[in-house]
């Protein structure tokens, strides 16, 4: 089996001993081969990344408007796509669901990447983060530091396919990572807590004292 390392060592001895000009030439060729192999192994992936569109920010094209971005989608002939909501109505959408009235609920992950009031002390290779303390649970809005995450409700009241009303059901969440509708309220995941905000009268306002 061909080994650059063995050839390199052998020809280095020949070169240092000064046995022949041929040995020196072979040494030079082996060095060039080693450099080519090194470049392919380490510099090659960088070149591939650049070719796939990960160049410097200055080389990126200008962002499209929401309306123009929607036009770039290609869907099957039997399907259609339209713009329902866009910034500044919504930002950093993480979780989307729909209620029995056809309204869209969105958890906006605006506090990402770190919760307010907590200091990261360790991050592993999978981005799992340890913080300096355990956060307090957020009943009806956090007791401790408040974040920027929120849950909003979007509705199209005139049937034109665009959200024309936006209600803020819950705000000040601190790195909330999930939600689900059910049992007359909303379940919210804000690590390490699983919270439930009841809304029995469906007025899109959490019932007082309903957090559990």
Give a structural overview.
By secondary structure, the protein is an alpha+beta fold. It is 24% helix and 24% strand. It has a four-stranded antiparallel beta sheet, with no helix packed on it. The radius of gyration is 29 Å and the shape is flat. The N and C termini lie far apart (66 Å). The relative contact order is 0.10. The model is unreliable at 1-5, 14-18 and 43-53 (pLDDT under 50).
Structural class: alpha+beta
- Give the total of domains: 2
**Radius of gyration over all CA atoms, rounded:** 29 Å
Number of strands: 9
Name the overall outline. Answer: flat
Major beta sheet, specifics? 4 strands, antiparallel
Order of helices and strands: HHHEEEEEEEEE
Low-confidence stretches: 1-5, 14-18, 43-53
Q: Work out the helix count.
A: 3
State the oligomer: single chain
């Amino acid at each position: 089996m061909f080994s650059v390392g063995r050839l390199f060592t052998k020809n280095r001895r020949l070169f240092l001993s000064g046995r022949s000009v041929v040995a020196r030439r072979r040494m030079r060729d082996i060095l060039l081969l080693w450099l080519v192999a090194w470049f392919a192994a380490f510099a090659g992936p960088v070149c591939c990344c650049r070719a796939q569109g990960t160049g410097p920010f200055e080389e990126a094209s200008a962002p499209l408007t929401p309306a123009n971005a929607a036009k770039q989608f290609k869907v099957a002939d039997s399907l259609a796509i339209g713009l329902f909501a866009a910034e500044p109505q919504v930002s950093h959408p993480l979780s989307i669901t729909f209620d029995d009235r056809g309204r869209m609920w969105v958890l906006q992950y605006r506090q990402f990447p770190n919760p307010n009031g907590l200091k990261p002390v360790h991050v592993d290779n999978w981005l799992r983060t340890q913080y300096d303390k355990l956060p307090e649970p957020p009943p009806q809005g956090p007791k401790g530091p408040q974040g920027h995450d929120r849950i909003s409700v979007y509705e199209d009241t005139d049937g034109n396919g665009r959200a024309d009303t936006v209600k803020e059901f819950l705000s000040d969440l601190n790195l909330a990572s999930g939600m689900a509708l059910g049992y007359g309220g909303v379940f919210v995941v804000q690590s390490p807590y699983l919270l439930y905000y009841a809304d029995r009268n469906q007025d899109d306002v959490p019932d007082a004292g309903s957090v559990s």
